[in-house]
Amino acid sequence: MSDQIGIVGAGAAGLMAAYRAASLGKAARVFEKNKRAGKKLLITGKGRCNITNNCPMDELLANIPGNGRFLYSTLYQFNNYDIMDFFESQGVPVKTERGNRVFPLSDKSFDVADALLRSCRREGVWFSYDSPVREIMAEGGQVTGIRLQNNEVYKLESVILATGGLSYSMTGSTGDGYRMAEGFGHRIIDPRPSLVPLETVEGWVSELQGLALRNVGLTVFNGSGNKVYEEQGEMLFTHFGVSGPMILSASRHILDWGYKGSALSIDLKPALNEETLDLRLQRDFAKYSRKQFGNSLADLLPKSLIPVFVRLSGLPPEKPVHQITRSERQSLVQLLKGIKLTVSKARPIEEAIVTAGGVSVKEINPSTMESKIVKGLYFAGEMIDVDAYTGGFNLTIAFSTGYTAGSHA
Q1: Angle, CA of 144, 147 and 152, to the nearest 5°
Q2: How far is Cα 290 from Cα 399, in angstroms, rounded to an integer?
Q3: Whole domain around residue 118: which residue ranges?
Q4: CA distance 243 to 329
Q5: Model's pTM, two decimal places?
Q6: What's the CA gap between 165 and 359, in Å, rounded?
């Protein structure tokens, strides 16, 4: 069929694009190299799928530091509220949690993927699994079809590339779309890991591997020493450095600095100011006045953190608590309010939640997602040089750009 639209990639963006195109009467065919659709979608949000964020448009755009302005038009065509309405209409009730994060009421990402597949099948979308695409064919600046790895050729009116970035490569995101776009002369902005765990210079973090800290404060400084981010929440120590929700968010704020040389300050007691924390220490020290310093912190810190904290304090662990001076106690307060870590680098892009970089937005029509270089070629999702913070914003981008591409292809 020469009037078919081909969608390369059956992730969040590709499925939404296929549904939208088919709902407008187009013959849509999805080519997916995996054996099933939505492989990455199923693992998002720790299997719960944070589908969008229930916030006003200005806040939505503010949470997309990677070329958010480019998405202005597409978000007005299909925004976060439209996304919620879509899933509700497909039998997936949603709920809003802390930070306006929106999840399916069932807490199951499978329900989200299944709703997309059902809506596609209802509209007559064809699916070709185990069908990796070798090339997109074009003549005279116009897309004419695609060729699969097995040399099968499909004549197509237009093609939507929705192959994802480079993160979570085990789900099939291996940069295929970049190569195809580059073949037409598109500029690929160097793909970099975003929303990614961080490695640190300090080796003592490995001693705390597996320790999760909740309700702690985090302040992030870029390579020039400027404060760029503050949050209170959860983090995790690993054998290489730090991870967890706060750290993933923090990573995007220092991405443009190349990560290296950036610094983290962890406030172990953000609910207490220095004066109140000093009084708390005095009470604990009075309680354990007959003990050694190394054995006096059980009420204040997790057990595995105590030896590291004592070492960082510079005080001898065997020092009697009643001999700790006022200035030494105040130094302990400072340490509790700001344990310092130096970032050496980000973890590999395969471990990142999203990819920053991709097809340059300067070469894509923001109202239609069509290539400015070759007619009939459209882009959607993570392979475009747009990215956002955590909180459902990246899936919002995928659904919105997919919908827009499907509308205009």
Answers
A1: 120
A2: 62
A3: 4-193+352-408
A4: 30
A5: 0.90
A6: 10
